[in-house]
Amino acid sequence: MIIVFIIFWSIPVEFGHERTFFQGFLIQKPIVRIGLGVNLSNIKIRSSSGMKIYEVKSNYKLIADDVVEVHIRGHKEKLSEKFVILIAHAKERKEAEIKAQDIRTKIENKVYVAEDKASGTFQIKVGDFLTRGDALEFIKTLNQIEMKDTWILREEITEKTAKPLWILVNDELKSLNEQTVLYFIPSNAQSFLSFKGRNYRGIFVLRGSNKGLVLVNILNLDDYLKGVVPSEFSPYSYHELEAQKAQTVAARTYAIKNLGTYKELGYDLCDTPKSQFYRGMNAENSLSSEAVERTKGEVILHRGRLINALYTSTCGGMTENVENVFGGRSLSYLRSTECFCQEQKEWPLESKNFVLPIKVRGMEVSQEIAYLISLKIIPPENNTVFFREEASFKEAIEWIQKALALLGKKKEVFAPENTDLNFANFSRLIIDAFGWQERVKNLVLEKEVDYLLNDFTELKEEDRNNMAYLLLEGIFSSSEEIGDIERRLTRAELAVYLTKIILNCRDLFHHGVFKGFDKDEIELEEELQKKQFTLSPDVFLVRNNDERYSFTSHLHLLGGERARWLERDGEVQLLEIVSSSNSNTLDRNSLFHRWQIRKSWEELAKRINQYYPVGELIDIIPQKRGISKRVVELLIKGSEGQVVVTGLKIRYVLGLRETLFVIDREYDEEGRVTYLTFSGRGWGHGVGLCQVGSFGMAQTGADYSQILKKYYQGVKIEKIY
Questions:
Q1: What average pLDDT does range 182-211 have in this prediction?
Q2: Which residue in 7, 25, 102, 305 has the fewest CB atoms around it within 10 Å?
C-alpha cells in the first residue's frame, strides 16, 4: 500500500479517480487520455455502429444521437505569423501543380502552389506550421521521401479573425460556441470510433486549447497499451511472448510515469513517438494483447518510484548511460549495459555430407542437386562426372514420377515412348506430366513465342509453344541457354530444371527459427510452434550469408537463428541457417545491427545549417565518446562559427540511425572532402531496454522479469492495480 501511495502521489488527480461512466459508456480504470491531433480544423469522426454527441458545459447536452459520421470545422488560435516549408520551384504553374499533386500522395499535410513574383517562378510549399520547431520536425518526414532540398519560410498573417466552430451532423449544420467541449460516445460497448482511417477503443473528446482544436482519445490504460506495444515492437518480427511482455511492462511504466505531460492541452500523452507510438485498434495483435493481459498492472520500480522506462530498437551491442544521450543527471538504473547473455548456450552441428561444386554454363548448381537429394528424388551421388554426363530418358521419367508423387500429383497413366532427352522432348514430357496443356493453350501468346524462339523456326508448333511456356515461367532462363535444339540434357541440367518446376508448384521448404539441439534431435520453431525432428546423419548443412550460399561441415549456433529446412520421413535432410551477422550480441538479428550510410559534403552542410547557422561547412569531428563508444560530443566547424553538438541531437543533425558510428572521408583531386561514409551500429537512442536484444534473450529462455532487470539495473517489478 505504501508503494502504491508513493507511485500515485505524483500522478494527476484524474488518473484512477475519473468517473468510469461517460453518459452510460463504461471505461475501466485506470484511464488515460491520448492526444490524436492538435490545431485541427477539418475533422471527420466515424463510428462502427453509431455514436452519441454531447455538448459539455456545466452539464451534458445531447446534440446528436446514433449517428455514423460527423464533420467538424473548427476554431484556430489567432496568430500573427506562421511557418511553411519551401520544397521545390517550377517555371510554370502547371508543372508546379503536377509536382504538388505527387507530393500530396506521400504526406499528410497541406501542399500548395504560390507564385513568387520576384523571381517569376512558382513555389511548392508545405504548411502551415505554428512554430519554426514544428516545421523543422516535419522536415524529417520530407527527408524520408527523399525531399532534402527544403527551406523554412516565415510568413505574416494579416487576417487574424478566428473561425467559428461548427459541426455537420446528418446533413444539418450546427454552429457552436468556440469554448464548447464535445464528447463522442459509442452507442454500445462493442462499438468503436474512427479518425483518419484508424479505429480506437473508448471515447473521443474535442476541446479548444491555446493551440487550436484538440482531439483526445479517453480509454482504459491497458486498452491503450494494446495499440502501443505492437506499434513500438512488432509481434510479427519479434514473436517471443516474454519479449512482448517486457515491452509491455516498460510501456506501461513509461505511460504512467509521464501522465500529464500535455495537461495544458487536455491530455496525458500524444500518439507519436514523442510519447509512445499509438495506432489504436488497427495495430492490435493477439500475441501483444496476451502480453498486456498477462502483465496487467505491472510496472518497474527503482527505490519505490516509477522509472523512466526508456527503450531503443537496436543498441548495437551495448546501451549507453542516459546522461550521455539525453543530458541531465545520471540515473543508476539507466547505465551502459552489454547486450550479451552471461551464460550463452551454444550448439555445434556437424555433417560430412556436401555436394561437390558443379557448374552449368558457369552457374553453380550444387544447391539444386542437394535440394533434390534431400527430397529423395535423385540418388545421393557426390560425383561431378555423374552429373556432367547426359541424362537418359528413363532417368528423367523416374525423377519426374518421384516429384509428382511428392507434390501429390500422381499421374495414373504416364508412360511416354522412350526418346532422346533433348529440350523439345523434355518440354513435351514436363507439360504432359504436370498437366499444363491448358496453361500452354491459354497463357502463351503467339507473338511471345515468335519473340522467344525466333531462332528455332524448324520446331513443330506444339514444341515451340511448350518451350515458350517454360521460358515464360523461368524454368529455362533464355533461348541462348538451349543452344542446339538437338543437344541432350545433362543430369545437372535435368536437376536444375526439375528443382525450378517443383518450386513453381510449391515451396517445400519449412521456414522458422533454430531453438536447440540434443544428440540427434533438433528443435525448430515453425509458425510459433516448437517442433522436434531427427537430424539425418547425412544432413546437408548450408550457411546463407546475405544470399551467398555455401555448404559447411560445421554450424556453430546460439539459438534464435532464422532457418529453413527440408524434411522427409520425420528427418531433417537439409538445414539452411540464414545469418547476416557472425556476432554473438543479443541484437545480432536486427537489420540495423550494422549499417553504412554515405552522404555528400554539400548534403551534410545543408542539413547542418537547418539546425545551426555555421555557414560553409569546414569539418565534422567526434570529440568525445561514451562507454558504449557512441559519439556524445561532435564538433562542427563552419565559416561563420562552430558548435559542439551533444547527445541525441547528433543523430538528428547528421540524419543518422544512431550515434554509434565512425567516419570515413572521400576527397577530390584538389584534396577537398566530397563524401563522408558513416559506418555504425544500432538504431535509436541507445538507452534502456534494447528491444531486439530482449527478443534475443527471450529466444534463449529468459523471462520478461530477467530481461527487464538486465537492461534496467537494480529495479523491481511490482503490480499496482
A1: 91
A2: 102
